[in-house]
Amino acid sequence: MNGDVYNEPRYAKEIVGAGAITGIVGGLVLAIAMMIIATVVGVPAADFARGISAVFRGEAAMTGGIGHVVLGIVVHFAVAIAFGVLFAWLIGRATDPRKATAGAIAFAIAVWAIMIYVVVRAAAPQLASALEPVPWWTLLLAHLAFGVPLTASPRIQRSIGRVPGERGEPEHEWVGRTYKVPPEGKQPAAAT
User: Fold this and answer.
1) How far apart are CA 60 and CA 46, in angstroms?
2) Which of residues 10 and 132 earns the better pLDDT score?
3) Rounded CA gap, 35 and 32, in Å?
């Protein structure tokens, strides 16, 4: 890649798009991991989502029905998308894969620490007590699994914001953020 690619402005659609995609996939991986962990320790898998809804509904959420589960799932994915967007903004589009991986690992550990030891304890004591029998390292592993899809964020940002001329694509005449393909055999007008 040429050096100019690294100096291009970062557009919001790249950051939000990559963050939403990686956040949804990471959120799905984390939700599955948390439901497996819940099942292994003898807790109903739906208690993962009920515990999240306990932030808004209190103790009643832990014994509530499908509405509490749906609320927990919606909140879980909203938070996962928000963390995905934050990571995409922090990591940028020009980060090489090794640095993106290291950044995703560090970010996932930070998310684990903040969510489990700060947010859950402060906002959902019911969920905190439900998590007591769960070994801390299993929750860390689940959050590291959330970080795996985040490693793709720079590549997705570049894909969303791809500019003709990158990676051997033909050069075209730019008109704002769109371009006109020149007729067959004609060269694009020189930039002024």
Assistant:
1) 14
2) 132
3) 5
Residue scoring higher pLDDT (5 or 18): 18
Contact 142, 28 (CB under 8 A): no
Looking at residue 175, its pLDDT comes to 45
CB 187 within 8 A of CB 26: no
**Which residues are CB-neighbours of 3 under 8 A, at least 6 positions away?**
none
CA angle 178, 85, 143 (to 5 degrees): 145
* Per-residue pLDDT reduced to its tens digit, 99-131: 999 999 999 999 999 998 998 888 878 778 777
Bridge partners (DSSP) listed for residue 178: 175
The pTM (predicted TM-score) of the whole model is 0.76
Lowest mean pLDDT among 92-96, 150-154, 186-190: 186-190
CB atoms within 10 A of CB 184: 5
Pairing of strands 173-175, 164-167: unpaired
In Å, what is the CA distance from 181 to each residue of 132, 152, 169, 171, 172?
A: 61, 30, 12, 8, 6
Alpha-carbon distance of 74 to 71, in angstroms, equals: 5
The full set of domain ranges for the chain reads 10-161, 168-192
Strands (E), the chain: 164-167, 173-175, 178-180
| Length of the chain counted residue by residue | 192
Q: Are 19 and 87 in contact (CB under 8 A)?
A: yes
